[in-house]
């Protein structure tokens, strides 16, 4: 049986003292160079407000997952004929902007 890893309490104590706000944002930073804005939308009536490619019910995270599972751009375009290369690039751009926004609000590294 493995023993639990002991965490450094000094770092966590300093976080409690500064009362850092690590709430995840609902929106991505609108001030960044956002090439995704014309192609990605969030609508509470579509997939419970998840970011999707406009005019579809294809979530941004689905496209990111497909790429992470080894699908090529051409595989995605072949299986989802309504999509374009620019849609896939917009998903990647949106994901990057979301990570930048998330990481700028958080002090602790993602584990």
Topology diagram in text:
Blueprint: H1 9-18, E1 40-41, E2 52-53, H2 60-68, H3 73-79, H4 85-105
Antiparallel strand pairs: 1-2
Helix pairs in contact: 2-4
Relevant terms:
single chain, 4 helices, mainly alpha, two-stranded antiparallel sheet, Arc Repressor Mutant, subunit A
Question: Could you characterize what this model shows?
Answer:
The model is unreliable at 14-26 (pLDDT under 50). This protein is mostly helical. The chain has 4 helices and 2 strands. Helix 2 crosses helix 4. A two-stranded antiparallel ribbon has the order 1-2. It has a single domain, classed as Orthogonal Bundle (Arc Repressor Mutant, subunit A).
Summarize the structure.
It contains four helices and two strands, in the order H-E-E-H-H-H. It is mainly alpha-helical.
CATH superfamily: Winged helix-like DNA-binding domain superfamily/Winged helix DNA-binding domain
Q: Roughly how much helix do the residues carry, as a percent range?
A: 40-55%
- Can you count the beta strands? 2
Looking at the structure, the CATH topology is: Arc Repressor Mutant, subunit A
Q: Domain count, please report it.
A: 1
Oligomer designation:
single chain
Distance between the termini: 22 Å
């Amino acid at each position: 049986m493995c023993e639990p890893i002991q965490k450094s309490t000094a770092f966590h104590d300093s976080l409690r003292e500064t009362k850092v706000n690590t709430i995840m944002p609902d929106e991505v930073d609108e001030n960044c160079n956002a090439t995704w804005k014309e192609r990605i939308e969030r609508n509470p009536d579509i997939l419970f407000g998840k970011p999707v490619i406009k005019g579809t019910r294809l979530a941004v995270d689905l496209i990111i997952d497909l790429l992470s599972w080894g699908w090529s751009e051409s595989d995605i375009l072949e299986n989802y004929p309504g999509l374009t290369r620019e849609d896939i690039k917009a998903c990647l751009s949106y994901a990057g902007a979301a990570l930048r926004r998330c990481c700028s609000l958080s002090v602790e590294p993602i584990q």
